[in-house]
Amino acid sequence: MMSADRERPGAVGSNVAVIGAGYVGLTTAACLAHLGHQVLCADILPERVEALSRGEVPIVEQGLEQLVGEGLDTGRLRFVLGGAEAARSAEFVYLSVPTPQGEDGSADLSYIEAAAREIGPVLPAEAIVINKSTVPVGSTRVVEKELGRTDVYVVSNPEFLREGSAVSDFLEPDRVVIGSDDQSAAIRVAALYVGVPAPLMVTDPASAETIKYASNAFLATKLSFVNAVAAVCEAVGADVSDVVLGMGYDQRIGHEFLKPGPGYGGSCFPKDTSALVRIAEESGYDFDLLKGVIAVNDEQFDRVADKVEAMVGGDVSGRTVAVWGLTFKARTDDLRESPSLEVIRRLLDRGAVIRAHDPTVDGRPEGPVWEHIEIGADPYAACDGADVLAVLTEWDEYRWLDFDKVAGAMATPRVVDTRNLLDRSRLMHRGFEYVAIGRG
Ligand SMILES: NC(=O)c1ccc[n+]([C@@H]2O[C@H](COP(=O)([O-])OP(=O)(O)OC[C@H]3O[C@@H](n4cnc5c(N)ncnc54)[C@H](O)[C@@H]3O)[C@@H](O)[C@H]2O)c1
To answer: Which of 94, 209, 259, 327 could serve as a FRET partner for 36 with CA atoms 20 to 30 Å apart?
Structure first.
């Protein structure tokens, strides 16, 4: 699976600290250990550090548990509590802590600032602090200030991995971007990635930081664009699957990321698009296009709720809606800003009863919306007595179920397939009413 060769002659066995053991930090730590570096990965959650030290990976990510196990076995990967503990003997310190959306839409840098303040006093001279969190232009300077040191470097190195394929994305990325005003620091950071087969680009920090936001904003734009095209398809009786196939053959457009759905979500696109709107605003540019992208996405959640409501005759109040899929996309357990939950919230507001299933959710997570969601033991149980089924996350296993059994469990066999995942003709043959996205 991984082409990076950790036994390769010349592999650099650097001392690396990674601050934050979440989706990005843990992947970074495990992959750098795999590449031959000595890695100390720190978190502030004692239970997370303890579990990881036993090789128990708290997130669903293909190949990650194997790499964490490998790192622990070789002794190249260890987990510690607190950033200072990890940073005191490090040549390189990655910051991979959260940068959530602040109240005004901008990125909240408080975790970054706190981590920098914590490691500043203990960093060895000449150490390089590498910012892997997604941060606005100018954050390199913010980190420098919080570190309070003039004998260390701060470099931007944005991360582009996708949850669900984080390990292979890290080890075989499309590109590595390093933003630094100091050439020697950039070269030292670049050496960490020897063996990673990807174009490596060194630029100034502001450009590196902008590349990350602009990339996510562009991907979000593609998704909103295709959802808008899907709405047109519905109105004119076209089939969006054929439309995007036909568009994608144009090499200037391509097939990737032209997939209609319930709206984008996850821990990155919503906050990063808002942050870029704010960054632009603060620098005097009105990024109207991106505001439109965000608005189309919000409307898409409403459009999906409308479809579900229309399917049961126009009033979903008191009706049972079965939901398949709660995570923001398949192959992850991440529920942050999930479009599924956005749609569920809207249906709950309209009085629906929600019975849901997700392969990664057993038991009820904590939080306000969850009190109102019943979790089924399996996809069939979620359909028990349901008036309509909404497919909201594209888990592959939903495609291969016994749909006679599904129909038998439901009060009325009706499906709103927001991922265009299921086989429409097979379902209609079994007596389902079926609607999807963008198919008139
Ligand atoms: N998740 C993604 O797909 C993805 C992709 C690219 C970039 N990013 C960016 O990477 C950053 C991290 O995202 P994530 O999804 O990994 O977040 P996460 O919430 O999964 O993980 C962050 C971790 O940092 C820990 N933490 C917070 N403060 C700390 C401190 N002072 N010291 C040590 N640990 C601390 C938290 O306990 C948590 O375990 C964000 O800026 C995000 O935008 C995320």
So the answer is: 209
| Strands of the 15-19 sheet, one edge to the other | 77-81, 38-43, 15-19, 92-95, 128-131, 153-156, 176-179, 200-203
DSSP secondary structure letter of residue 369? G
Task: Let me know if 268 is a catalytic residue.
Answer: yes
The residues, any chain, with a CB within 8 Å of residue 315's CB and separated by 6 or more, are 309
Residue type, 215: S
Q: Reduced to 3 states, what is the DSSP secondary structure of residue 398? A: helix
Please tell me the distance between residue 132's alpha carbon and the centre of ligand 1 in angstroms.
Answer: 9
pTM over 0.90: yes
Tokens of 313: 């005759």
Quick check: CB of 270 below 6 Å from ligand 1? Answer: no
For residue 201, what are the β-bridge partners? 177
Helix (H) or strand (E) holding 26: helix 23-34
Neighbouring residues of 192: CB distance < 8 A, sequence distance ≥ 6: 12, 14, 16, 32, 35, 37, 92
Q: How far apart are CA 93 and CA 130, in angstroms?
A: 6
The token pair at 418 is 């927001």
Q: How many CB atoms lie within 10 A of CB 277?
A: 23
Q: Which residue has the tokens 């990321």?
A: 257
Q: Measured between alpha carbons, how far apart are the two ends of the chain, in Å?
A: 40
Q: What is the pLDDT of residues 311-362, one digit of tens each?
A: 999 999 999 999 999 999 999 999 999 999 999 999 999 999 999 999 999 8
Q: Measure the CA–CA gap between 42 and 122, rounded to whole angstroms.
A: 14
- CB atoms closer than 10 angstroms to residue 224: 23
Tens of pLDDT, residues 19-76: 999 999 999 999 999 999 999 999 999 999 999 999 999 999 999 999 999 999 999 9
| 108, 99 contact by CB (below 8 A) | yes
Distance of alpha carbon 355 from alpha carbon 373, whole angstroms: 6
Please name the residue that has the structure tokens 């919230």: 345
Reduced to 3 states, what is the DSSP secondary structure of residue 390? strand
Nearest-CA residue for atom 43 of ligand 1: 134
Nearest ligand 1 atom to alpha carbon 267:
1
Ligand 1 lined by 241 (C-beta under 6 Å): no
